[in-house]
Write a structure and sequence with these properties.
mainly alpha
Length: about 130
């Protein structure tokens, strides 16, 4: 559900910024379906880094260690930049506005990264 919300925000940013002559139309290559697919594809680095971070040792307080934090934050940044690059590659008029498209993707990926970093496991079925 949140990926669709981020795709809607990225599609709205793409429609509002691109286009020739100030018309606001980003062109035929940027639609909601394309943007949703590209935002979902941008989740892959975050998913891979989150799985790797879950395998790293936890800090004494239950949170993630420094290596896990760096890995997950790097995955979130990489995913946001790659999703923005994919969206702007579909419409060449959006290349100068890549940071505007990366912003909603970065917010989504950052929220998911925080969920990964501060997740407390059940510890074998017991209550925590």
């Amino acid at each position: 559900m949140w990926a669709v919300a981020a795709a809607l925000a990225a599609a709205a940013a793409a429609d509002g910024t691109g286009g020739a002559g100030g018309s606001g139309a980003a062109g035929p290559g940027v639609g909601l379906y394309d943007t949703t697919c590209q935002v979902g594809y941008g989740l892959l680095p975050l998913v891979l880094s989150s799985v790797a971070a879950l395998l790293l040792p936890r800090a004494p307080g239950g949170g993630a260690g420094g290596a896990a934090r760096a890995l997950v934050c790097g995955g979130a940044g990489w995913g946001a930049l790659s999703a923005a690059a994919l969206v702007s590659a579909r419409a060449p008029a959006l290349r100068p506005h890549r940071a505007l498209i990366a912003y909603p993707c970065g917010l989504l990926y950052g929220a998911l990264a925080l969920l990964t970093l501060y997740h407390k496991g059940s510890g074998g079925g017991g209550r925590s």
